[in-house]
Amino acid sequence: MAITVKINKETHDKIVAICNNFNNDPGELINVLHQTQDFLGYLPAEAQELIAECLHMPTAKVFGVVSFYAFFTMTPKGKHPVSVCMGTACYVRGGEKILDAFKSALGIEVGETDANGEFSLTSLRCVGACGLAPVALVDGKVYGRLVPAMVKDIVAEYRGK
Amino acid sequence: MANYKYHILLCGGTGCTASESPKIKENFINILAEKNLSDDVQVIATGCFGFCEKGPIVKILPDNTFYTQVKPEDCREIIDEHIIKGRKVQRLLYENPEDKKHISDSKHMGFYKKQMRIALRNCGFIDPENIDEYIARDGYKALASVLEQNDPKATIDLLKKAGLRGRGGAGFPTGLKWELCAKNAADQKYIICNADEGDPGAFMDRSILEGDPHSIIEAMAIGGFCIGASIGLVYIRAEYPLAIHRLEVAIKQAREYGLLGENIFGTDFSFDIILRYGAGAFVCGEETALIHSMEGKRGEPTFKPPFPAVEGYMKKPSNVNNVETYANIPVIINKGWEWFSSIGTEKSKGTKVFALAGQINNVGLIEVPMGITLREVIYEIGGGIKGGRKFKAVQTGGPSGGCLTEKFLDTPIDYDNLVAAGSMMGSGGMIVMDETSCMVSVAKFYLDFTVEESCGKCSPCRIGNKRLCEILDKITKGQGTMEDLEKLKNLAKVIKDTALCGLGQTSPNPVLSTIDNFWDEYVAHVVDKKCPAGQCKALKQYVIDPDKCKGCTACARNCPVGAIHGTVKNPHEIDQNACIKCGTCIEKCKFNAISIK
Predict the structure, then answer these.
(1) CATH class of residue range B351-434
(2) Closest residue of B to A147, CA-based?
């Protein structure tokens, strides 16, 4: 049965090329998924179906791997991805309060993207800047030694940009 | 080669990179060029210096001046004063917290005095992207001597005599592990480096890979020779882009120098290294799970035996060691087993790297000889508890470890003592907590982590930990009963005994150790419905005393969630449903009108 691919031709060709690069070897699935997510920003169901077809494996196996690893996501990220560190060092220095403040400032929960696709919120485990704890990342930029009162201003810096 | 008068070493680790160290490097280079000093002064981005609390760190050689918390705009002053006029910039020197005197040489600082750097020997000294600097510090000498000696068994025996134990957590003797794998004949074997550091709050392995990637390559090649593997695989977290980059550069350079590839040092030993990326799964630190992940599958563990030494990657004999374990190996070979086994305690030799973090003054990466006490680490190296508050507990071993209290402060740190005290060495996370940490919440924090990371294969871990977490959640909300505490204890023991892999078997440790050491705190949550540390949100309310409130609006303006309402000069009120209990209002109130109920 032919699969219904809703992704456009450019994306389709790119994914096929990635799979070809890895010789369509099922053992390279994780590398294929990394590169596909680098390119698309997330791993929609259609992309997973296509990868399954290229690597000659069941889609369920591909989904099994995607859903297993925290790094892979099936939801598109917002324009400004926000990640709050919830590693132990940040946690004991108040990381949870920072996360609550972001949830409230953005009006979304962890793992969600806001309605206009501007911000998405995730929590992550340790960015390695424990000396600056608690930290959060916006657009990859690290904000350290945070207190909840700083969160509103950080969000304002990015909103509408 | 240019003959430099000064070397400016600058931390290029993740922590300092987050505080603009790349910009500092750029500024130094530009200002030096502008003053025609580029041939006299070399600027090098090194690996982590360890003292992350005071980052970004800049060190000037040859006089060993250690500047802390340097900002991009300080570069001009450092060049004008220090490099040109030879005067140290006093305001950027480390200030000794005891007598407020400036210390310019790091070896006189409390943070460094008791440290002993073996695995981190090159971090902060060399440019990790330059193989010549590694070679200049005896790099690849151990590999050369092992190949020259051409006796794998002798090298394995040397590691056994040295007493090196796995630094990934369990402490299995490394020499023995190699011996077991070497014994199994096969057409192909693999030597694997576990660089999937998933313990939240631990960054030892990353710092080694970022600061000294060649030491790992060299050790893996030695391992490959000893067990008979021609391929090495590094399983590294995709979340470590800088470490991946440094390792890629190092592998490329090693190939160019003929230190990886065919016929290394003219012998018939050939060896090369491939990188495999993890994708964020804590359980992949377990070796069988790691191997499945490298094969492109879900990282689920399998029952041992068969051990990887018999049936590992692609069903071939494989040896898995952790990054820090490998980093020790070239030095042991160069300096001899007698030297290494003279450091440490009877059963734990050498040093251990810890990521010291939490409510402590000097957060950073430290390496200490085994046998040092927790008190020395926390008070001398760590500089004591932040804000002069009281020490409450130290957590070692991450989600598999436990919390140790004051009574263990004078216990010498080694594998066996930590286990006897109810915790474990783990990979080296060391989180210090003060009196404001609620131990029930800490246990719940770790259980939340385990529940999220459980692979779901065995039911004790998948279902049992979920139940533990739910009971803890009930307790932190003030809905727990004494019966729940009994259930916690029993269930934790069942999970420990019946889970399939190391993750499941150790996941109840944070619960058991906090119950053992902080029973009263659990009881306070259950019986008095109070959180003694004042952390549990459901058990506290912030309220404004209308008689004391002057209506200055400071609290409302600073509330991050807009939960405080009121008009100017009239008493304000907190909307309890919107309040996230962050405590900002208390800090901002000048009239002591806000209290916790």
Answers:
(1) alpha beta
(2) B584
